[in-house]
Amino acid sequence: MSAKPPIATRRGLLGAALGATGAGLTGCDRIATSPAVNQRLNAAEGLTFHVQRLLLGRDALAREYPPSAISPDFRANGTVNPDSEDYQQHVASGFKDWRLEIGGLVERPLQLSLDDLRQAPARTQITRHDCVEGWSSIGKWRGARLGPLLDRAGVKPEARYVAFFCADTLELTLDGTGDYYETIDLADARHPQTLLAYEMNDRPLPVAHGAPIRLRLERQLGYKMAKYVMRIALIDSFADLGQGKGGYWEDRGYQWYAGI
Amino acid sequence: MKPFRERTRRGTTAVYRHPLLVRATHWVNALCLLVLLLSGLQILNAHPAFYWGEVARFAHPVAAIDAVPRPDGELRGRVTVAGASFDTTGVLGASKSGGEQLQARAFPSWLTLPGYPDLGAGRRWHFFFAWALVINGLVYAAYALASGRVTGLLWPSLADLRRFGGALWDHLRLRFAHDDPGYNVLQKLAYVAVIFGLLPLMVATGLVMSPAVYARLPILGDLLGGRQSARTLHFLAASGLVSFVAVHLAMVVAAGPVNELRSMITGWFVIRREKP
């Protein structure tokens, strides 16, 4: 039997609370760093995800704004210029030789140039970008809708998530776990406003905002919207990616579901 | 609402003022508010600036907390509200926060959960206890409405409101009527404002900050003036709750902490002691 009786849960929390009198960390921080406590707290993320999906619907569109609402001071967060040699060569050549690979659990893996993406079914939207830090900015995005691209590649039935692998390394590690990546589920991937954006405010996407393409995943926070996307893979589980939490920031304690 | 049960033992008359459900939800609520405040300040530390409207105008915040270096190299903590700056070194903007030297930090470590900077953990605590607050609040509200507690005990009558001036004068002189098992008009107004005003405003402004909720209920965003306005109101409502708790605790101490605390633990509130 895997389910613990509720008393064990209570004892676990109590134990963590009683154990919270160590040196170095304050009492609160001993509780805050306890893996058992954090696991319990994570229950709220699942609750939020399921309740939001149930009550808010999968296809509700994020609000779109008039051009006058576009922020003149849209902030670029995270990496603003990946320093890898490969990436810098792409920038120098205007992403002429850059190809987006869509692979993994698909029938027909794709290699798409920036021009191919520009010819794909597109959408333009003026939406609000909400950063996990608390600020918001409004920008105009144009990009290829992810849904039709996935249809073109032919998603295998066992695929559950779309993974985005990026050119930016936020933390230098030997095993590559410091590289930015993100995962989203297929419901969000097929949402009409989910784009691989190649234009921002009517100009080619600037390097600071993720050139040549960034994900637009309206209805979730900014850290889900991977910049500098180099490769896309359909996967059935993200347990084997990075540290297994579904994204660079998720591996460092952020929530996988960022709709709140 | 039925009148309170009353009992007299050894010359002391008490009423059963708070049924178990009210006591339990009161303490769960208190715990939730404490955790939500501390984790909320952790989240706020990630971007300690407030704006009005839908988006941030980074160069023109309504209010902001930051740290600026002084000529001697030390940090100075600064709070700016509507253009006016205040030196808050040591507490806001720059604090030692457990270390030897001042560090740039909007709210000091003793006011955040966790005590060290960790936005992800702050959000984890915040949303868990936000759910707890909402579920606990709904249980309380359902009970309070169904039992008649809202109309019978909390909602001020016209006669109550006419006594406002007198009650205020009594409170300012710290004179409290202990023989009344119910609440006076100031209590009623404060409790109703918190239960049906500030707490629902906290939840509504919190929900508007969720991009998924906003997509479904943009009207809520409009009502609250946009996402950044909602974030600012969320902080102001939280400040209102902190003020309420401060006055609430002061009143408990002033009105007789033993009797007040007993009534919220056992339910029994002493209204009369006969002199031997």
Please tell me the overall pLDDT of chain A. Answer: 90
Q: Count of helices of chain A?
A: 7
**Could you give the count of β-strands of chain B?**
9
Query: At CATH's second level, what is the architecture of the largest domain in chain B?
Result: Up-down Bundle
Q: Bin the helical content of chain B.
A: 40-55%
Largest beta-sheet details of chain A = 5 strands, mixed
How many structural domains of chain B?
2
Main β-sheet description of chain B: 4 strands, antiparallel
Order of helices and strands of chain B: EEHEEEEEEHHHHHHHHHE
Largest interface: A-B, 49 and 43 residues
Strand content of chain A: 15-25%
Structural class by SSE content of chain B: alpha+beta
CATH H-tier superfamily of the largest domain in chain B: Transmembrane di-heme cytochromes, Chain C
Biggest sheet of chain B, strands in spatial order? 3-4-5-6
Q: Tally the beta strands of chain A.
A: 10
The CATH architecture of the largest domain in chain A would be: Alpha-Beta Complex
From N to C, what is the helix and strand string of chain A?
Answer: HHHHEEHEEHEEHEEEE
The third-level CATH topology of the largest domain in chain A is Sulfite Oxidase, Chain A, domain 2
Rounded Rg of chain B: 22 Å
Inertia-based shape of chain B: globular
Can you characterise this structure?
The complex is a heterodimer of chains A (260) and B (276). Chain A is of the alpha+beta class and 260 residues long. Chain A is built from 7 helices and 10 strands. Chain A has helices at 6-18, 27-33, 35-56, 85-92, 114-119, 146-153, 186-189; strands spanning 100-104, 110-112, 122-130, 136-145, 161-169, 179-185, 195-200, 203-204, 214-216, 229-235. Chain B folds into 2 domains: 6-48 and 107-273, Up-down Bundle (Fumarate Reductase Cytochrome B subunit), CATH 1.20.950; 49-106, no CATH class. Chain B has helices spanning 20-44, 119-146, 149-154, 158-162, 164-172, 185-209, 211-216, 218-223, 227-255, 257-265, and strands at residues 6-9, 12-16, 49-50, 63-69, 75-81, 84-87, 93-95, 103-105, 268-273. The interface between A and B is large, with 49 and 43 residues.
